[in-house]
């Protein structure tokens, strides 16, 4: 296809993918190669998009999810057809439950071989539709960039989430005249996604807050998703409201802030007269809403209408962007002569006393010199180790449940965990995403030994791409969260069926792959080992042997074991 001067004016499907990714602002794709998708690589090379190739497609999908969480921009993973796409399904499912915007592009057999039994042919769209916001097949090369932009639009609107496109091999490899291909221009194919919320409802919430004596607010993941951090801080400080944080909302307020609360949540939700839930659903983490006082006025703010009032009645529901809604509430409250901030001082003092009592109750365990090491001592050492520039990643069951009670990120957007799907194995890919997106930040990851095993081979990818981080394995040679449940339900003699692991020295694994590793068996050695890992400048694993018979309170309280 020439313009008469010998110059080729055609473009391939893979190059159209790359142009559409570039228009979206994508600067990296996470991938595992396959014959169906290599033309996308060629296009990315021309467009200046980096390619990070991993050892398992689940890692690629989790990394795209993690990239979105860190940057606020959709991440992208590219995998081949059949098992390449099915390997990535867990990553898509995790992003779906966590409301993380990403695009998975999967290969597919040629359209000309449809239903003929081509290599790796599977009904990908049918499989992924229930766990994505958008899933489609690209039917023609001319439509490649158009459908990529459509997928990104769907992934980013409302409550965000993953999108999926499969591109048949002949569609991807074919060339079409450039003028026939629709290539959306950057910034020209998406509307603003910031929903303002009902003005009357915002005025009503402002009035409720001003008149409340014992309010509390829970800042959930959407506070970070919508980058509402500054507004949330201004609101709680101006109106003197105690704030609790969960998920990606952790770090909104720094530790030590007078409005930052962590351990008094149950007391607050029992005694508050007004409870505001921002950007988190009434799911298992919230006891499906049953943990909130039936006497309290409950307000829920969320990007999705489907989440508001789900599992529990609310007195006021507002669908909208957290930053926009909270900004509106703050402005409306400023119109009242007395916002009630001063009268709420005794309420904050009451909660602070509850916090102190809970902290004192476990103080001995936080400093315990016991051997094997108590998990509370390990997570306390990690908390002390973090700086304002440390992004903390938790990947595991029982050990990460311990850390959720102790570890406090010191800056917004510096806490990453799987989210409500509870997926093990996100740690290494989240490290990959965080270190790529923010190479200036220190990344600290805590793994359960079972969780690390799922995606640990991509530690080599971190070495290959020179992505240093401080990794800690809380090693009890067991899937301990499950072990506790089996003992509780069936007795100690059946407590180790299907959940007991080998005594693996993960430090040697790290060294074998070119990283830094240490074994730690004494509590006094945790801090020095972490500092040596930091100073090594390499991907690292500090293998800490912890007490297999110590369980987190959150593990023991899980209803599935009762």
Explain the overall architecture:
The chain is an alpha/beta fold and 562 residues long. It is built from 24 helices and 19 strands. The strands form 4 sheets. The chain has a 6-stranded parallel sheet, sandwiched between helices. β18, α23 and β19 form a beta-alpha-beta unit. α3 packs parallel to α5, α3 packs across α18 and α16 packs across α17. The longest helix has 17 residues. The mean pLDDT is 93. GO terms for molecular function: acetolactate synthase activity; flavin adenine dinucleotide binding; magnesium ion binding; thiamine pyrophosphate binding. Its cofactor is Mg(2+); thiamine diphosphate. Keywords: Metal-binding, Thiamine pyrophosphate, Transferase.
């Amino acid at each position: 296809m020439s313009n008469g001067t010998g110059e080729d004016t055609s473009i391939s499907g893979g190059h159209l993918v790359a142009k559409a990714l570039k228009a979206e602002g994508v600067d990296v794709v996470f991938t595992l190669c396959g014959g169906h998708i290599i033309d996308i690589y060629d296009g990315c090379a021309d467009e200046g998009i980096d390619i990070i190739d991993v050892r398992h497609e689940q890692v690629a999908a989790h990394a795209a999810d993690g990239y979105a969480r860190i940057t606020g921009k959709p991440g992208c993973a590219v995998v081949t057809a059949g098992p390449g796409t099915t390997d990535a399904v867990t990553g898509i499912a995790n992003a779906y439950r966590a409301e993380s915007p990403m695009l998975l592009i999967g290969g597919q057999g040629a359209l000309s071989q449809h239903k003929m039994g081509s290599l790796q042919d599977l009904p990908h769209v049918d499989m992924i539709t229930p766990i994505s916001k958008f899933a489609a097949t690209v039917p023609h090369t001319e439509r490649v960039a158009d459908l990529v932009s459509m997928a990104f639009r769907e992934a980013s609107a409302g409550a965000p989430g993953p999108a999926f496109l499969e591109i048949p091999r002949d569609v991807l490899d074919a060339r079409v005249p450039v003028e026939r291909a629709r290539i959306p221009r950057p910034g020209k194919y998406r509307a603003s996604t910031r929903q303002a919320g009902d003005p009357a409802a915002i005025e009503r919430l402002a009035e409720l807050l001003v008149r409340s004596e014992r309010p509390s607010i829970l800042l959930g993941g959407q506070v970070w998703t919508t980058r509402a951090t500054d507004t949330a801080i201004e609101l709680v400080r101006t109106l003197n409201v105690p704030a609790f944080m969960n998920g990606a909302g952790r770090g909104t307020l720094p530790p030590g802030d007078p409005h930052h609360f962590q351990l008094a949540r149950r007391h607050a939700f029992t005694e508050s007269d007004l409870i505001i839930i921002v950007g988190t659903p009434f799911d298992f983490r919230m006891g499906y809403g049953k943990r909130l006082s039936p006497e309290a006025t409950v307000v829920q703010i969320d990007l999705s209408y489907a989440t508001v009032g789900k599992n529990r009645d609310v007195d006021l529901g507002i669908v909208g962007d957290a930053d926009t809604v909270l900004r509106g509430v703050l402005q409306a409250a400023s119109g009242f002569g007395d916002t009630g901030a001063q009268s709420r001082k005794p309420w904050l003092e009451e909660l602070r006393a509850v916090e102190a009592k809970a902290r004192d109750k476990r103080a001995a365990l936080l400093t315990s010199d016991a051997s094997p090491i108590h998990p509370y001592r390990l997570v306390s050492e990690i908390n002390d180790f973090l700086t304002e520039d440390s992004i903390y990643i938790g990947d595991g069951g029982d050990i990460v449940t311990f850390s959720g009670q102790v570890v406090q990120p010191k800056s917004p957007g510096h806490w990453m965990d799987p989210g409500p799907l509870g997926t093990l194995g996100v740690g290494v890919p989240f490290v990959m995403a965080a270190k790529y997106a923010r190479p200036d930040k220190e990344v600290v990851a805590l793994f359960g030994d079972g969780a690390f095993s799922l995606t640990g081979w991509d530690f080599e990818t971190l070495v290959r791409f020179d992505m240093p981080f401080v990794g800690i394995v809380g090693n009890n040679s067991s899937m301990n969260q499950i072990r506790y449940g089996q003992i509780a339900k069936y007795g100690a003699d059946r407590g180790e069926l299907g959940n007991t692991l080998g005594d693996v020295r993960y430090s040697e694994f790290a060294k074998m792959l070119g990283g830094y590793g240490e074994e730690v068996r004494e509590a006094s050695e945790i801090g020095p080992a972490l500092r040596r890992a930091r100073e090594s400048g390499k991907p690292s694993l500090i293998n800490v042997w912890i007490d297999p018979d110590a369980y987190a309170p959150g593990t023991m309280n899980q209803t599935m074991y009762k």
